[in-house]
Amino acid sequence: MKGSDCLQIFGVCFVKNEDDIIADSVTHAAQFCDKVFVVDNASTDRTWDMVKGLDLENVIPVFSKDFVFCDHHRLRFMETKKEELGANNWWYMFDADEFLIEDPFDAIAVAEEEDADCIGVEIINFLLTKDEAREAKESGRQESWRDRKHYVLYASGTIKLFKNTRYIDYGIYASVPLGLTKECSRRLVMKHYPHRSLTQLEKRVYTRYDNPEFESECKLGTDLNHYTFDKSTVPHLRRWDEETGLDLRGSFSVIVPRLGESRRDRTFSAIIRMLQQLQLLRVFYALYRRYAAWRQKIDLKNEPKF
């Protein structure tokens, strides 16, 4: 699944307490990434040992360190590797519970033709149903992500791949760099397994509840049944089995619009390219970093060192 010798993809995964799935997702990404960097956020389970134990030359365990995770930390790490990746090669950002099911090089080829610098995903979100949770609890059987059969479709618009161009800035903004100008018309399909078992759900809540990044998602003390689903709570819930496979017919539920469709995005893209031509982009980014730190109340002195 690797692409041509002249095009590289570097994968980046930040992880904490995902020992039930991390080896599978990293191994999967290693099939099409030239390098996969894994940063562990002080896992208390076997996650870090499993990453270090993978017998794959292109998987690079960076370190295991305790810090309060924010989206921009991933970007700041990528900034330290941008010269190693090289200009006009591609980054792939993924979480421990995510698997691309299509060849990213096909989408990259389309992006190159369209002069696009980022690629979004359509997400197949696999969920734990109330019936499955009850049966697992009654039987005492330890389930895994492979047992999940029910899913919903989300056109998330989340950018998972972007080009390492000279006009983007890896700063303290959000999940993607500042300066991306156009999303590829082709989106990749990704499987996502956020809720895999009752054991994993409990671990997920305890891992995330005190992080402001996930404040709206996980509440300590909430009954785990709150994180399970059925047709009454998710009317578009579908079931996968080996005979029917995945049903991708019909429209995905749109969560985030495409980058570049709004007038604001088109205007911003034009400004970025103009500043690049005038050689003023570095000045603009330096000022914007200061503004972003002030706006988000980020103490740069206490940021983790990558």
Q: Would you spell out the secondary-structure blueprint of this structure?
A:
Elements: E1 9-15, H1 22-29, E2 35-40, H2 47-52, E3 59-64, H3 71-85, E4 90-93, E5 98-100, H4 104-114, E6 118-127, H5 130-139, E7 150-155, E8 159-163, E9 188-192, H6 198-208, E10 238-239, E11 253-254, H7 263-277, H8 281-296
Short description, anyone?
The chain is an alpha/beta fold and 306 residues long. The chain has helices spanning 22-29, 47-52, 71-85, 104-114, 130-139, 198-208, 263-277, 281-296, and strands spanning 9-15, 35-40, 59-64, 90-93, 98-100, 118-127, 150-155, 159-163, 188-192, 238-239, 253-254.
Keywords:
Spore Coat Polysaccharide Biosynthesis Protein SpsA, Chain A, 306 residues, eleven-stranded mixed β-sheet
Structural class: alpha/beta
Total domain count: 1
SS summary, helix count: 8
Instruction: Summarize the biggest pleated sheet.
Output: 11 strands, mixed
Cα Rg: 20 Å
The global form is globular
| H/E element sequence | EHEHEHEEHEHEEEHEEHH
Give the CATH architecture: Alpha-Beta Complex
CATH-assigned fold name? Spore Coat Polysaccharide Biosynthesis Protein SpsA, Chain A
The overall pLDDT, averaged over residues, is 83
- Helical content (DSSP H or I, runs of 4+): 25-40%
Our estimate of the beta-strand percent is 15-25%
Textual characterization of the structure:
This protein has 8 helices and 11 strands. The chain has 306 residues and is of the alpha/beta class. The chain has one domain: Spore Coat Polysaccharide Biosynthesis Protein SpsA, Chain A (Alpha-Beta Complex). Strands 1, 2, 3, 4, 5, 6, 7, 8, 9, 10 and 11 form an 11-stranded mixed beta sheet that branches. The radius of gyration is 20 Å and the shape is globular. The relative contact order is 0.15. About 2% of the residues have low confidence.
